[in-house]
# Entry
Amino acid sequence: MALEQKVGLHRGVETAFGKLIPEKEAYSYCLRTIAAFSANIFQVMRILNDDWEDRTEKICECANMMNCAACSGSEGQLQQYLNDFYDEWNIPEFVDREAWIGAIWGDYGDEAEDMAGRVIQFTRNRVEKELDSCPWDIVGSEMCNMTTAMFTANFDIAAGGEHGKITNDVALNMCEARGCGNPHCRVVAERLDAYGLDHQGWLDHRGASTAPVHDTPPERRVKHAEGLRSGQYTQAFGEEQSFEWQYNWVAQMGWVWSVSFPLIAIRDMEKNEGDFDRVLSIVFATAGKNHFIDPFAREGLRTWLDIPREIGDNDPRVMGAYIGAIMGCQLVPFEWEAFDKDGVTIKVSTDDFNGRFPMAPLDEITAGYEAEWNGAIKTLVSPEWSVWIDGKDDEFQFIQIGRKLDSRMV
Amino acid sequence: MLFKDDEVARADAFAVRNSAGWYRWTHDTVDVAGPDSTALLDKLLVNTVALCKVGREKYTTMLDDNGRIIDDLMAIRLEESHWWLSTLYGPQMIKWLDEHKQGFDVSYSDITATVDMYSVQGPRSTEVMDKLLDVPVDDLKRFQIVDATIAGIPVHVDRGGFTGELGYELYCSRSDSARISELLRSTGIRELQTLEVFVRSLPMEKGMALRQDYHFLTPFEANLGWSVHFDKKDDFIGRAALEKAQEEGPRFAFVGVEIERESYEDICQNEIVRKRGVPVGKCRQMIYGYTVDKNIGFAIVDAEKCPIGTKVTIGPNDSPAVIVAPRWC
# Structure
């Protein structure tokens, strides 16, 4: 009876060989793989645009615009949007909720994405948030800057009180960022009027805060967000969201802010038509080849997926199981069409694969993973094998793992 | 989060404990009126609001069908058949009324957007209010509400608050809000700056909890059994389940915790409480109490395993803590 109760409580993602990846581990892996995809995309950006200031400014502007657009519309529509948000999170009037919606909003997003930390201060004129972990800490400084542009949008949609106008009446600084080597991420918002500050430009968001910050000592920092620690996220006014909710939320929204929004700006950075697609496939293929260069990486994967020893190293099922684990942990539904020593075929809805957030489908997910997995199989299995995706423009696409001769092997 | 060395927060707290302070404190407010308003509220709330006189108010809880607290609120009787419900979040209250209004001749609406509320708290608050109001409030009883004016502006004044000190709450129209805050500022008493001081620190020191602290508890488990009027009223939502729960005894105890460390940065709401490494409950929230100079919190723990004095740990870094009574001063 006791065992039955325990089994019923725990979920997981099943690998090709029947092993269950526990839900919490699957969630962490999901976050890290989205972050890795994002890191690759930002490498594409750095090749297309070698000017740090220029590219940072461009993705900041785009991320801000897209965040504003997400809640645009008439005044009534915006108010309805905000009311729905207040309802969902039970945010009462007495916190001056319109003034600080950005902070309230940001906290649950951070927690859902396992950016674990704490709101150090929450007052009328100042909010300080400190984060001890960030799965996206591999992406780089442009992203850290970009997140402040997103927060600015969240403040702007309600804080200024003037509908449709970007009032930018809060100085928002990511004073520290793990993606830049700091032990924490630290975001501080301070009201311009209260602190006598000037409006900021997109490159001004990495300054120090005006009031001193609180630095949590190392022994009191946390490794994971509430969902992993306690099984749910509890917002300041008591509304709780389950870990399951959090996992589903991030499997959608993680793609939106860290891949979809920056891509809008990055695509426009190509100087010659076709540069973006060419660079994207090179970057992702290289990333893929490097996944399994180390022998212990291959051995580690076999252990993690419980690949039986009867399946040798030069077998397409090793790669198939790896792709299946990525898709499973990213909560993408799929079917095995073939899974034997001659090859693997995975059937997946194109909408599910590219449209992680239904309103923002991305062909680049297919293009990126096709290149990355085709690179990865060269070192994980052998160069005799390739990965390609058929039916990219159809309702269903088929991820193929098979033998392929390519005299140029670019 | 509040820290020992936060001098602004400390000054806020001490103003209320030792003198007087004011702050905007606009609860969500739901207006309920009509011939059956009292009967409907008696169906929804655990105590007998029908016994509440006009111009008085009652603190009470509202339960779901399982007898567990879904809200705690003040029911304010403005007229014979006219109530204000002061709740944490009005839209949820409206949904609950929608579900249970059938057969009752009532009307109700969330008036939060039209009403503002200011709180004046502290031992000197009567003196401050008497200076502000056209009519003194010296003889106002606890949980009594009266109509009054401040510089000609109509207000409701009730004697109450959420700090455990002598205090008053001023309800005014949103359109008069700026003027009222100006007048409060002109009294020279401190305008509190730190939300967490008046939402959490001051109330918690006095054992006052927020709705979320009571989530999933019965009033008996929440130490609010005194508010349940089994003998004085007929059926109410959750009664059958609550009677059964009372027979079975408490599953959880609502207790206080004190951590034996300088700060609590790694303890969020619902952090797991462990006794000798084994989970025995959850910590609702920690805060720094400036009056008692301690990091204090509420917790829901296994009633049998965690009597007062039990040593526990809380959170991912195993902060040592002790179970105490949920009131500090």
In short: Chain A touches chain B through 36 residues (CB under 8 Å).
